[in-house]
Design brief:
Elements lengths: L1 H5 L2 E2 L5 H26 L4 H29 L11 E2 L15 H25 L3 H28 L2 H33 L1 H11 L2 H26 L10 H17 L10 H26 L4 H24 L1
Parallel strand pairs: 1-2
Helix pairs in contact: 2-3, 2-4, 2-5, 3-5, 4-5, 6-8, 6-9, 6-10, 6-11, 7-8, 7-11, 8-9, 10-11
Length: 325
């Protein structure tokens, strides 16, 4: 690893031929990335896949013009030089290797790709004192700037209002299935199921530190259980719910947070102060659950609030009665 880093060339030390070769290899890589995006989106978002197919064709065209320029100036043999060979050259994050990328993430990555390339060539052109190199880098920056305009033209051509609306709806549904639904289930489980053991311990012992330890154990244990259960019971292939690990993380983290919300107040030594704050936190958690159900699951707010608050009140009462008895 250290050897690879020390063997990298500085951009300032590259010859004009090497800069041109670097631009050619970069265009080749970007075309492959856009085709990977198109392949990933084709089944669910065909209109956006067409956009990325078109962007890949644009990259091919720029690469061919750069090759023609290299052939005219330096001949047929193009030096083998890539981004990873040059210190300080802009890098491409390997997000295209990840599964279940959201549509917005792919669109955002494509825009960042074009902007980073343009910005790099512009800054590089401003640093060089050689007129020929300055012109070359300026031309490359201008070429990258035209990519963004062509991408917008392709979107206007392929992404009509109806197509974009349909794809946005699919992307929203995927976000809900992958993140919101398991996260909401985890928050509900963590907030409600830990009420009984936490408040039973609180009223039985009136020891805030013991209550905090029990609440932490219940919250973390429930989070681990919910996370692994969510990840293991559905791989997302048939249901279309997305990556099981993303769903597991959402469920596990939100379960833990739901329980820790009303466990943390018991770090306060005074029992009744801690209990009062914990009750307020429970109230906020339950109303947050109702809001999420209304916002993302389209459940009427009053019905969601009644279900969550009533369920939470019953579990709280059970814990208080058991602990007080």
């Amino acid at each position: 690893m250290l050897s690879a880093l020390t063997n990298r060339r500085r951009f300032a030390d590259l010859t004009e031929q090497e800069v041109l070769a670097l631009a050619i290899s970069s265009e080749e890589d970007d075309a492959r990335i856009y085709r990977s995006f198109a392949q990933r989106l084709r089944a669910d978002f065909p209109a956006s896949a067409e956009v990325f197919d078109g962007m890949a064709v644009e990259e091919d065209g720029h690469r061919q013009r750069l090759i023609d320029l290299h052939r005219a100036r330096f001949g047929e043999v193009i030096p083998l030089i890539r981004r990873e060979h040059v210190a300080g050259f802009y890098a491409r994050r390997p997000v295209w290797l990840a599964q279940n990328l959201s549509l917005d993430a792919i669109r955002g990555e494509a825009q960042a790709m074009e902007q980073s390339a343009e910005a790099f060539y512009t800054r590089a052109a401003a640093r060089t004192g050689d007129a020929a190199t300055r012109k070359l880098l300026g031309d490359l920056a201008a070429a990258e700037a035209t990519h963004d305009r062509h991408a917008k033209e392709l979107e206007d051509r392929h992404l009509t209002g109806d197509a974009r609306g349909e794809e946005d709806q699919k992307a929203k549904r995927q976000f809900i299935l992958t993140w919101v639904q398991p996260g909401l289930a985890g928050l509900m489980d963590g907030s409600v199921s830990t009420l009984a053991p936490i408040f039973a311990t609180a009223f039985a012992t009136q020891d805030t530190w013991t209550t905090f330890l029990v609440g932490t154990a219940a919250s973390v244990g429930a989070g681990i259980s919910m996370g692994f259960t969510e990840a293991a019971h559905d791989d997302g292939v048939l249901s279309g719910r997305g990556s099981p690990w993303k769903r597991g993380i959402a469920s596990g983290v939100m379960t833990t947070l739901g329980g820790m919300g009303h466990a943390l107040p018991y770090l306060i030594p005074d029992f009744w102060t801690a209990t009062t704050i914990a009750m307020i936190v429970v109230f906020v958690e339950l109303w947050a659950i109702a809001w999420i159900q209304n916002r993302y699951m389209e459940t009427p707010f009053l019905r969601a609030a009644l279900q969550v608050v009533l369920g939470g009140a019953l579990v709280f009462a059970a814990g208080a009665l058991i602990g007080g008895g």
